[in-house]
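pasting for ref
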Amino acid sequence: MRIGDLGSINEKYEMFINFSQSNDIDGEFTFSAKDNLTSIDYESTAGSKILEGYKAPFDATPIKRMREAGGALIGKTNMDEFGFGTFCTNSAFGIPKNPFDLNRSCGGSSGGSACAAAVLDDHVSIGVSTGGSIVCPASFCGVYGLAPSYGRVSRYGLIDYGNSLDKVGLLSFKASDLRRYLPIISGKDPHDPTSYVQPELKLGQKKLKSVAIPKEAVKGDGISKDVMECFEKSLEMLRSMSIDVEYISMPTLKYSIPAYYVIATSEASTNLARFCGMRYGQQDGDLTLKFDDYFTSFRSKYFGDEAKRRILLGTFTRMVGYADRYYNKALQVREAIIADYKEQFKRFDAVVTPTMPFISPRFDDISKMSALDSYKADFLTVPPNITGMPHMSAPCGYSDGMPIGLLFTSDHWNEDILIDAAERWDSAFDVRHAEVKI
């Protein structure tokens, strides 16, 4: 299979951290994978200098299953360090460029995967979502992005961000690829106990017939005018497809952002404790130092600013005396949000909102944002992620030449509704190729 010169492509977009040096690939199809999924033939850095040089002795289960189905892994895609970011500007290995405008973000944290899906012909990329890291870049890059139910795809071989939140999914320019590749990467895995709770994946059993629109998510000044106008046109298109559309109330959604960042950073600070310069990646610290001094100096040198920020926040929220006030309270909030969604799914097949509140921002605008501003941008993508429910972003319009995404969320294990929605939407909506596509 001829794939072209990935070197020159990557020089323009910086979507890969590591990639194939050959133009000819032996495989029935090509795919790429986010760099926090381990593979035997490429380094696995999770976008961090602290893991530079680390090559795992095994493939992550999703990669292994894609290879067994005849796929050829052509590269590991760029990402925010350990998944910490909304705009994919926190990688230690360059910043991927949006294929519609090289001065804008691809979205995070699976930015490189979305860029590869938009730029490369007949290509699917494996992404990972914690708080919106599949659907956000899918929206910004004008492709389809599917994050399945938590536990649907094995996390064995994933360099975890938040164990109770991480989900492995797919990004592709073609909606039909979701149906083709989801069964390949899904299924029970003896290496991942969380995968054993899943029922059998049955596609084609359920159709999208009705959607609910949470007023708390779309009413107010949080969403830009152009995105809101596009969203309202999308609702009209859904109605023209004989899908019932109704506004409802989901009051718990406003608590999703604080609950998510407490849970996610608490779990991240624990997961990142293993990266101390003694087992993985970089190991060039001063071994004459005492352990605590070595540990501190090494992590200070190789972790980026956002990783340090989240380690500090997560360590604080699970300290003795604070865990009940923050972490345990956030877990209770998560249960309340799940219950709110479940109540809606008694009447509706899916909950629909815009994917992101604005089009992809320019890098110079991102540099002016505070960390809190960046966190707030996730308020539409965090709710389905914190609940572990499957969700999918579909391109639904364009503003200033930049894509806008429509976010569908269904009940646990109902990926068939999302794939039906994607394929029906794809037949009704003209998805544009990027202007600078290669």
